[in-house]
Amino acid sequence: MPEQPSLFDAPSEAQEAAEPETVESTPIMKTSGRPLRVLHSSDWHLGRLLYGQKRYEEFEAFLNWMQAQIVEQSIDILLIAGDLFDTTTPSNRAQSLYYRFLNKVAASSCRHVVIIGGNHDSPSFLNAPAQLLKVLDVHVVGAACEDPADEVVLLRDVDGQPEAIICAVPYLRDRDIRQAEAGESLEDKDRKLVVGIREHYAQVCTAAERLRDELAVEVPLIGMGHLFAAGGKTLEGDGVRDLYVGSLALVGADAFPASLDYVALGHLHVPQAVAGCEQIRYSGSPLAMGFGEARQQKSLCLIEFEGRSPRLQLVDIPRFQRLERIKGDQAALEAALDRLAAEGESIWLEVLYEGDQIAADLRQWLEQRVDGTPLVLLRVRNNRVVDRILSRSGDEETLDDLQPAEVFERALVAHQVPDAQQAELKQLFNGLLQQMVEQDHRAE
Length: 444
What we know:
Elements: H1 13-17, E1 28-29, E2 36-41, H2 56-72, E3 77-81, H3 92-106, E4 112-116, H4 123-127, H5 130-134, E5 138-141, E6 152-156, E7 162-168, H6 174-177, H7 186-215, E8 217-218, E9 221-226, E10 262-266, E11 272-274, E12 277-282, E13 299-306, E14 309-316, E15 322-328, H8 330-342, E16 347-353, H9 362-370, E17 375-382, H10 404-414, H11 419-442
Parallel strand pairs: 1-8, 2-3, 3-4, 4-5, 7-9, 9-10, 10-12, 15-16, 16-17
Antiparallel strand pairs: 2-13, 6-7, 11-12, 13-14
Helix pairs in contact: 2-3, 10-11
């Protein structure tokens, strides 16, 4: 594979020429024949459906491709930053894909896999085989630990020498980072959530720094997390659930201690750096989670460490299933369908009808047009059949286009609730949504 452009500055000549101190009281710089190579991935969502369409072949193709990349790129450490599965009760086939992949990686030259739980994952499901997987050098932290030091993972090379320390912080649930108090306001609750997240990362990193000092070896300190950082980009239809509106979104890059040499994040599906900090990144989802991501180039993050200095490149992921969104009146849709069918490629479609005339039999007409072609009709949106109460200025949409918070906000406007009351009602509503998710996790 050709060398891809670096997003980090390479070490200066002075840095490369500098010889590490070997005095007993000074940490020893980790040296080896080549740089340590780390691969960062997240948000696989194994088992996810796209408007009822199963995607197991895509998932399998991606995992096979990534396993080949691990071999070709001589990866030493694989980091998976949460949301391995799409639900807390993954199907047998999704589980099979997961375990077969880990087995193949364990048989490769990749020495370690570190996995953290995401908000879609079941902590108990991920943690159940943790001790067995550890034999394969697969390290799993499915949920926050009572002792933050237990989220610190020391990785050793083939000679048994330390080569990296991972702060494997999973998705932090409300109950993990704060205690409810009688009479506390919603503002107090939000503030405590932010403070709790920051304190948790600080405690884990302090334990990691202490371990590195005790070992007296200058190895990379790598953070992992699954959360929504301030300024993060999402796309329509990507399925990202940000229930902590107004709280988690305020967790900025400064929540991650400066001692971390790289931070591997999950939760957002758009590959991106956080607040312009290239060493704090979301790898993004490997597959398009919705039609809004159809044209997005997916990638993995490959990080090379010379000592503690990271150098990053993005490894583009091939498209395993083509998605297309077409829109227009009946004539425009017919032309687009003919053009796509002529390409002879399997394509999953979202169709938006924008004609002025009522098209009551739109779906039936579309199904007839794609019959006998490699086109698969997954979703049809008819702007003539909508709930007018929910329509935005100039737009037409259906309920499945909206998130619960959006529906609630429009209901407040429709019922002319005074602005002074809306903020408190939104806070209460978001709190109820959060409680529902927490109850769902407790019931698993």
